[in-house]
Amino acid sequence: MRQIFLVIALIAAPVAAFTSFELYANNAPAEAADLGDLSSFKAIVADVQSLASKGDLPAAAKRITDYETAWDEAESAIRPLNPNDWNNIDAASDAALKALRQSAPSADKVNNTLAALMAVLNNPAQPSH
Predict the structure, then answer these.
(1) Which of 25, 47, 60, 112 has a beta carbon 3.0–4.6 Å from 52's, enabling a disulfide?
(2) How far, in Å, CA of 88 to CA of 93, rounded?
(3) Are 81 and 89 in contact (CB under 8 A)?
(4) What is the pTM assigned to this prediction?
(5) Contact in structure between 129 and 112 (CB atoms under 8 Å)
(6) Where is the signal peptide (predicted)?
């Protein structure tokens, strides 16, 4: 009789664990779609950050145009993947562009907006501040 209970326990435990996992997995919220490889955008922003940190804001402003062009060209492919994340990056992009294109840009503001842009490129689900 003990052997029957042992067999039932040895069969029931894995079945219960598997069933519980399946129920959890099927009811877990779906993850948002990934925007894909953003490394080319990050590389350009890193270049812009490097130029800005050296105080060469005119060169940084010129280089961020490369980012803007690439971002705009990729919009039709990237935006449908996750419109919310795309909007987070786009808002941070606009802030960085605006900061660099002021008639007399503030180095602090430029560096802060570029840091915020890089942060949101690294984690698009997190809106920039």
Answers:
(1) 60
(2) 9
(3) no
(4) 0.73
(5) no
(6) 1-25
